[in-house]
Amino acid sequence: MKDTYRHKGLRKKLIETLHEKGIRDGRILQAFNLVPRHLFLDKAFEEWAYTDKAFPIGNKQTISQPFTVAYQTDLLELKTRDKVLEIGTGSGFQAALLATLGVRIFTVERQELLYKKTSDLLKKLGFNNIRTFLKDGMEGLPEFAPFDKIIVTAAANDIPTALLSQLKIGGILVIPIGKERQQMCKIIKESERQYKRIYLDYFKFVPLLKGLNKD
Ligand code: SAH
Questions:
Q1: Rounded CA gap, 44 and 77, in Å?
Q2: CA-to-CA separations, 95 to 6, 70, 197, in angstroms, rounded
Q3: Disulfide: which of 41, 139, 153, 165 matches 88 by Cβ 3.0-4.6 Å?
Q4: Domain spanning 53-203, CATH class
Q5: pLDDT tens, 82-94?
Q6: Do 110 and 138 touch, CB atoms closer than 8 A?
Q7: 90 Cβ contact partners less than 8 Å away, ≥ 6 residues apart
Q8: Which is it for the CA torsion 49, 51, 56, 61, positive or negative?
Q9: Distance in angstroms (rounded) separating the CA atoms of residues 101 and 61
Q10: Best mutation site among 94, 108, 111, 158 for ligand 1, i.e. most ligand atoms within 8 A of its Cβ?
Q11: With contact defined as beta carbons under 8 Å apart, do 178 and 198 qualify?
Q12: How far apart are alpha carbons 71 and 48 in whole angstroms?
């Protein structure tokens, strides 16, 4: 679990890349400085941890590309102490980045192995403001609703209604929609029945799947 000067230097370079690609929020860039992405990857990928790429994390899943993490985080318009629900814990990197920005995170994963591995890692790294859950995220987390913000980090065919109903009025849901490739969608809950939808850039995510996976 070492974080060396070399890693820190590589993070600075990654931040420059993210800035060049259009991420301008200084708080988000600073958070990338503070979260050692190489600790969220298998040792085999450590060398490339600070390149702007997605990598396999086991169980056919991936850690999202840093640009995608930054892009989704930006769309959430976070305020300190926001209560945030993440669907798709995966490696835990996105959750760690959000927690570093001072919000409270509830993160849900459907794969038991990833859930266990990542819960342990986040505890070891001292992220006490992240709560992890083994659940089907399509149902959201009704017992802790409503949330200020919801972020989905897997590709959905359509917008799960449970997530809309668990959002506060004025809250924001960020979700990639589509099959082969996905269009990022930002939804603002304007009233109990009115939602504003904004469709943005295209990305590639692993699919949002139903039910739990215990293998
Ligand atoms: N945020 C993650 C991205 C991981 S990839 C990171 O920073 O690494 C997406 C994750 O979503 C995978 O781990 C996958 O198992 C999970 N997932 C897919 N469908 C899900 C569902 N219905 N509920 C919860 N998690 C789901």
A1: 34
A2: 24, 12, 24
A3: 153
A4: alpha beta
A5: 999 999 999 999 9
A6: no
A7: 57, 61, 62, 63, 64, 109, 114, 118, 153
A8: positive
A9: 25
A10: 111
A11: no
A12: 20
What's the pLDDT at 111? 97
Residue 207 alpha carbon to ligand 1 centre in Å: 8
Structural domain boundaries in the chain: 53-203
Site residues for ligand 1, CB cut-off 6 Å: 61-64, 87-88, 90-91, 93-94, 108-111, 114, 136-138, 153-154, 206, 208-209
Closest CA to 173 of 153, 157, 202: 153
In the residue annotation, 191 being an active-site residue is answered as: no
Identify residue 30 by its one-letter amino acid code.
Answer: Q
Residue in this structure with the two tokens 């859950």, named with its chain if needed: 133
Length of the chain equals 215
Residue with tokens 């399509």: 138
| pLDDT band at residue 142 using 50, 70 and 90 as cut-offs | very high
Rounded to the nearest angstrom, the distance between the alpha carbon of 109 and the centre of ligand 1 is 6
Q: What is the pLDDT of residues 45-73, one digit of tens each?
A: 999 999 999 999 988 899 999 999 999 99
Instruction: Look at residues 100, 152, 91 and name the one whose alpha carbon lies nearest to residue 121.
Output: 91
Cβ–Cβ contacts within 10 Å for residue 38, how many?
20
Tell me how far the alpha carbon of residue 183 is from its chain's centroid: 16
C-alpha dihedral (52, 1, 74, 79), degrees to nearest 10: -170
